[in-house]
Each structure stands twice: as C-alpha cells, then as structure tokens.
C-alpha cells in the first residue's frame, strides 16, 4: 500500500519479495502434490482449494507491487539516472531497467524531434524560464493519507504548525512531511 500511494519510489523490499516468492513456489508445489493424491478426502480438497486461492491472492498482490514499481521507474527514469540517492532505493535489475529505458527514451526523442532542431536546442536538459522541466520528478508536495502505526514525534507542516500523530490517528498531509516516518515504518499510507 505504501508503494502504491507514495508519489516517490520507496526502498525496494527485495529480501521480503524473494522469501515470499520462495514460499509461494513451495506452497504451489505442495498444492499440486495434494491435488493429485487419490487418497485425499473431499474435505481436504476443499482446504486445498482455499490454500490455492490464498496463493493466487498473494501472487496478485506481488504482481501489483511490481507493476507499481515498474510504472514509477519508467515515469521517473531520467530523474532516477540523475539521482544516486534514488538509485540506492532500487534493486540492481530495477536500476538497469531505468538506465535502459532512459537511454531508449532519449534516443527516441532525438531521432523523432531533436535532430531536426538547431544544435543549441538538441538537448533535453534545457530549463527555459516558465516552461515545465522535461525530466519528470516525483511530486513530494502531493497530499497523502497517513495512518500512524505508533505514537510519532511531532512533524512540522509547511505552514509552520506541528502535527502530532498518536497511534491509530489518520492525517492528510503533504508526502514530504511524512517521508521519513514512512521510511522508518512509523506510519503507513492509506
């Protein structure tokens, strides 16, 4: 849920994902063995179906998590390549994908448009005044709903007031205000 609702790319959960996929694989193998066992009763077959349904639900959640990360990586690929801090939050394969995607996007822009422009305008890194930047960055000022998992130290809102979140408290606040709390696991996005 945090990854889905955060405007920025969060730290990868590579170890958790690896353990989860191993567990799914072993559960799927066990289910297949038990389904082919002729000595199992109808009640056991019903339990096997429940386990198989739960395995499929977990697979759906894992796919959703990976799709969300892939979407963000492709959306912010050029930004990721310019920010070592963001690259540290990605797995090695995600960083490689961002690098390839940014390179392919740059090549596409160059061959379809930029090569036809004068030499001084053939770059994507220009920052003309009053024009939005070409490199898409996460909008950390976007408001998010946050649920406090524990009592949190007060955080300073953009208007200067302090927000104290007690365990179970739900707040609407800019992402930048709670970014560190999310990274430490003190709050979760809803």
UniProtKB/TrEMBL annotation:
It comes from the Eukaryota. This is GINS complex, Sld5 component.
């Amino acid at each position: 849920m945090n990854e889905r609702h955060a405007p920025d790319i969060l730290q990868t959960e590579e170890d958790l994902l690896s353990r989860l996929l191993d567990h799914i694989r072993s559960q799927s193998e066990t289910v297949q063995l038990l389904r082919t066992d002729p000595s199992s009763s109808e009640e056991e077959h019903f339990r096997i179906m429940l386990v198989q349904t739960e395995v499929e639900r977990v697979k759906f959640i894992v796919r959703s998590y990976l799709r969300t990360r892939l979407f963000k990586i492709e959306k912010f690929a050029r930004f990721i390549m310019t920010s070592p801090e963001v690259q540290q939050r990605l797995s090695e394969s995600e960083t490689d994908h961002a690098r390839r995607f940014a390179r392919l996007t740059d090549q596409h822009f160059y061959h379809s448009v930029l090569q036809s422009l004068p030499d001084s305008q053939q770059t994507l890194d220009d920052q003309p005044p009053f024009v939005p930047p070409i490199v898409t960055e996460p909008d950390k000022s976007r408001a998010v709903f946050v649920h406090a998992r524990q009592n949190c130290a007060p955080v300073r809102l953009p208007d200067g007031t302090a927000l104290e979140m007690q365990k179970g408290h739900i707040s609407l606040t800019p992402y930048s205000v709670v970014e560190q709390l999310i990274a430490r696991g003190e709050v979760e996005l809803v």
